[in-house]
């Protein structure tokens, strides 16, 4: 994902820096690194434990940092927005695969599939707390808007 960010950042006039975490339950020094790096926004691409999610969302709110995630649950919990695969659709696809395997298909013969449906979720309550205005055109594209 960093390659895509590196490629897109210049045309968007963005400067980015990546912060690694020790594990999904331990943010380690990540929050202090974000402060030192003077980050203006957060993009979180990994799954976090519930405690780490809460810590990160509270940090973003306290530091007034817009946050984007690849998991809708974090937006429900107070993050600003997410663009994420439709996990319900992915689970239905997994059930179809399981059915084929149970009927005798060899897993190695089944094609690898990528998500085809993604959901944009926006939390307007968080946007208001950050004093951000989300344009009507972006809101119109959202699959879910949390009031």
What does this structure look like?
The protein is an alpha/beta fold. The relative contact order is 0.11. The chain has helices at residues 2-8, 30-36, 50-62, 72-76, 87-102, 124-129, 136-141; strands at residues 42-44, 67-69, 81-85, 118-123, 144-146. It is built from 7 helices and 5 strands; from the N terminus they run ααβαβαβαβααβ. It is 41% helix and 14% strand. α3 (50-62) links the parallel β1 and β2. The protein has a 5-stranded mixed sheet with strand order 1-2-3-4-5. It has a single domain (2-86, 117-146), classed as Rossmann fold (3-Layer(aba) Sandwich), CATH 3.40.50.2300.
Which shape, going by the Cα principal axes?
Answer: globular
Poorly predicted runs are none
CATH superfamily: Response regulator
Class by SSE composition: alpha/beta
Strand adjacency order, main sheet = 1-2-3-4-5
- Radius of gyration, in Å, reads 18 Å
Q: Helices and strands, in N-to-C order?
A: HHEHEHEHEHHE
Count of discrete domains? 1
Quote the average pLDDT. 91
List the helices and strands and how they pair.
Elements: H1 2-8, H2 30-36, E1 42-44, H3 50-62, E2 67-69, H4 72-76, E3 81-85, H5 87-102, E4 118-123, H6 124-129, H7 136-141, E5 144-146
Parallel strand pairs: 1-2, 2-3, 4-5
Antiparallel strand pairs: 3-4
């Amino acid at each position: 994902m960093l390659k895509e960010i590196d490629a897109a950042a210049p045309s968007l006039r963005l400067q980015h820096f990546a912060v690694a975490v020790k594990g999904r339950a331990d943010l380690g020094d990540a929050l202090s690194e974000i402060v030192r790096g003077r980050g203006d926004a957060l993009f979180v691409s990994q799954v976090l434990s519930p405690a780490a999610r809460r810590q990160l969302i509270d940090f973003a709110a306290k530091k007034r940092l817009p946050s984007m995630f690849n998991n809708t649950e974090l937006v429900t919990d107070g993050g600003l927005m997410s663009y994420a695969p439709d996990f319900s659709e992915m689970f239905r696809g997994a059930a179809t695969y399981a059915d084929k395997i149970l009927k005798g298909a060899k897993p190695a013969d089944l094609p690898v599939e990528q998500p085809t449906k993604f959901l944009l979720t926006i939390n307007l309550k968080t946007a208001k707390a950050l004093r951000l205005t989300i344009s009507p055109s972006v809101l119109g594209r959202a699959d879910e808007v949390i009031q």
